[in-house]
Amino acid sequence: MKLERIDQIDRIDLTIVPASLNRQCRSLIESYHRIHGYAALADLLWKSGLGPFIESQSELRQLLKQASMSRSAKRANDGFVQIATTILALEILASGFAGWAGLYPEAALIAHMLLKPLPSNQQLPLMAFYLYQKQPTVPNAITMLAPSLDPNADSSAF
């Protein structure tokens, strides 16, 4: 999907995220929260300054609404995990982490444009949280996010 005008940024189809990156990010996030619990995930998203970004994206806004209103903890956690997964994947694409931008240059450009409006001190808050902690809580977190060498392993998925 090509982005023709910057004012279309709130109508981006978030399926630009490669399916394999989406799976790897979700695996990392779920690994972390299986150890530490899911209770703080919604807080993490909001306190990281991502609230306005989530609200600006219709798909993420809908997931947030469903997760926030769910009576089932499992469904709520799944919604928050999906939001975090999508944002972490966008951060990885935008930053070029582990070569993802080289593999998916158009998706990386769109991700960079999406995340550019974030305050400079909060450019990649989920990468900072999940990947660059002083005491990593998920062993091999960085290697978990390396692109697959299998050329048939991917198709975009939200």
Structure description:
With 158 residues, the chain is an all-alpha fold. The protein is globular and about 40 Å long. 60% of the residues lie in helices and 0% in strands.
From the structure above, extract its key features:
158 residues, mainly alpha, 60% helix, 0% strand, globular
Helix and strand topology:
Elements: H1 19-36, H2 41-56, H3 58-69, H4 73-95, H5 100-103, H6 105-115, H7 125-131, H8 141-144
Helix pairs in contact: 1-4, 2-4, 3-4, 4-6
How would you sum up this structure in a few lines?
The chain contains eight helices and no strands. It has helices at residues 19-36, 41-56, 58-69, 73-95, 100-103, 105-115, 125-131, 141-144.
Helical content (DSSP H or I, runs of 4+): 55-70%
The dominant shape is globular
Low-confidence segments: 1-8
Return the average pLDDT rounded to an integer.
83
Summing up helix and strand content along with how strands pair, one would put the structural category as mainly alpha
Distance between the termini: 14 Å
Total helix count? 8
The biggest sheet amounts to: none
Strand tally, please?
0
* Element-by-element helix/strand order: HHHHHHHH
Roughly how many Å is the radius of gyration?
Answer: 15 Å
Estimate the strand proportion.
under 5%
